[in-house]
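User: Could you go from structure to sequence for me? I need the amino acid at each position, not a summary. Structure tokens:
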């Protein structure tokens, strides 16, 4: 593994940073207001025009074909400015990737260019349910085969991008007699398909600009060609999607945490107490040293997982390690930054309170920290056998 980005990756990182600083930073706080949803969606279109909505997708299907490392560093830069924009970018890239990996030629040619170009504002995954969160094998949504195609019935919960998604990748039970984790299949469902309805947006603590909704399927009929991958093998697809998604969340968390630390570092360099700047006291210096050291550890774990995926090597353990460490660190970084800034950091006069709210969910979605520890331990013990 090389510890330097190549020329293309650097250019993509710089392009992402430029977009983040010029376009997102000035409006990130305002995007949390519901009346600014249109402005938020315009930023997603901006990402599409830069090629950021399909960074690890073949150019034949409209992607940038830049790889997983480029995706990771670009996502970190975007998330430093606006985590809500970052999570939409992360999910959209994975939707395109999944269709590219297991879709038929017709599915790839039909849907991926629309996902990457912005014709679909976003794609979304419909996996989680009220009783199938950390354990996705317990799905209740059903897909029944009919003469006309597949009829879907059920509800999905906590679906990112749902409100403005043009396409859903949906998991449903196709063999109800199979054991848990078996008999699950995957389908492509366009959002304007009859029988699809979007629930009210969740009132969230953080990442407020991005939508999170329930998605309901009521006698939703899709053609037989909507089946994505092999029948009854959808659970394998879900596991693969979650593993890849953890690199995205680690990259996103890295962006939030680093933004918080940079904000606090600037503040204590200017703020004076007891006749000197706060940064001249040894206590705050130790806090900064520890936090930045952990930041670099988070970055290296994330890039290692990205490199392994990009080079088609096994990366399950490394993705969970990166997601676990980076997300936990991002929350610690926000806590440390708030301690350094004191009461000022607690107010909306500074973006730190938003970073703290945005960071919290990174230890929850794409598998909680506790689930990551289960996966890591399982992989380690398996290797010892």
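Assistant: Here is the amino acid at each position, in order:
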């Amino acid at each position: 593994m090389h510890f330097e980005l190549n020329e293309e990756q650097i250019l993509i990182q710089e392009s992402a940073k430029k977009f983040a600083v010029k376009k997102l930073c000035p409006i990130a706080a305002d995007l949390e207001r519901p009346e600014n949803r249109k402005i938020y969606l315009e930023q997603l279109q901006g990402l599409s025009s830069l090629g950021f909505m399909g960074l690890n997708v073949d150019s034949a299907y409209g992607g940038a074909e830049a790889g997983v490392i480029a995706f990771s560093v670009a996502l970190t830069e975007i998330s430093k400015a606006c985590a809500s924009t970052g999570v939409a970018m992360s999910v959209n890239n994975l939707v395109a990737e999944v269709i590219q990996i297991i879709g038929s030629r017709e599915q790839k040619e039909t849907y991926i260019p629309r996902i990457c170009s912005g014709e679909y504002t976003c794609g979304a995954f419909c996996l989680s349910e009220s009783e199938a969160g950390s354990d996705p094998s317990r799905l209740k949504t059903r897909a029944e085969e009919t003469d006309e195609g597949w009829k879907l019935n059920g509800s999905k919960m906590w679906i990112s991008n749902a409100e403005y998604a043009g396409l859903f990748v949906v998991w449903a039970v196709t063999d109800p007699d199979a054991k848990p984790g078996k008999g699950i299949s995957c389908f492509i469902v366009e959002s304007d398909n009859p029988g699809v309805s979007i629930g009210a947006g969740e009132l969230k603590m953080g990442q407020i600009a991005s939508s999170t909704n329930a998605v309901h399927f009521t006698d939703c009929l899709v053609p037989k060609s909507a089946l994505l991958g092999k029948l009854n093998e959808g659970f394998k697809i879900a596991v693969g999607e979650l593993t890849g998604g953890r690199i995205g969340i680690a990259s996103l968390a890295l962006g939030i945490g680093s933004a918080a630390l940079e904000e606090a570092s600037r503040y204590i360099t200017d703020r004076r107490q007891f006749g000197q700047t706060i940064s001249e006291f040894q206590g705050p210096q130790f806090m900064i040293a520890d936090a930045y050291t952990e930041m670099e550890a988070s970055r290296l774990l994330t890039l290692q997982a990205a490199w392994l995926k990009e080079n088609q090597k096994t990366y399950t353990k490394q993705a969970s390690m990166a997601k676990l460490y980076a997300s936990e660190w991002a929350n610690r970084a926000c806590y440390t930054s708030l301690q350094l800034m004191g009461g000022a950091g607690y107010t909306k006069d500074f973006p730190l309170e938003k970073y703290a709210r945005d960071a919290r969910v990174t230890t929850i979605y794409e598998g909680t920290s506790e689930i990551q520890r289960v996966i890591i331990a399982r992989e380690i013990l398996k290797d010892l056998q």
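One structural detail worth keeping in mind: Residues 150 and 239 are 23 Å apart (CA to CA).
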